[in-house]
């Protein structure tokens, strides 16, 4: 195994475990065992657990930033463009559920001693998205809360889904439920931003 493939394996496994169990619930030993490596190999590539977590969060941020920049480069500053932005963000979270999960753990005070990630990663992305949204809406709209609400709902749906009439959890693995959530997200965000109803 090359050094790069070992590093990537550790990153992939750590991402999966941090997303499932949180930083506080994941040990370096658990990561090493799940990767089929020893702790010394993990330490060789990343040092300690904190440095590995920082690498996981940086990679997650770069992935999310690239997806947002791609969609923002092609949207129009109108209701249709904002719906396209919502759709792409939902699709991204469905395709990469580990990224919403990583952030949701942080919302619940996981890795509280690593406090700078929100300023480093979240704030610039929120400013970028809010700036694009502002171009499409009128004055008097609380753009930040509208964007945050869309993020909170999308992360919650992708992580936990909804409970159906039979008590079963439905969510990102169910195309019908995704379509239903997408339609709701359009209506909810459109109402918050004062956008015309798409009909």
From TrEMBL:
SUPFAM superfamilies reported in the protein's UniProt record: Homeodomain-like, Tetracyclin repressor-like, C-terminal domain
Domain HTH tetR-type: 4-64
Keywords assigned: DNA-binding
Keyword DNA-binding: yes
UniProt DNA-binding region: 27-46
Pfam family, one: TetR_N
InterPro entries, per database record: Homeodomain-like_sf (IPR009057), HTH-type_TetR-like_transc_reg (IPR050109), HTH_TetR (IPR001647), Tet_transcr_reg_TetR-rel_C_sf (IPR036271)
Record-given protein name: TetR/AcrR family transcriptional regulator
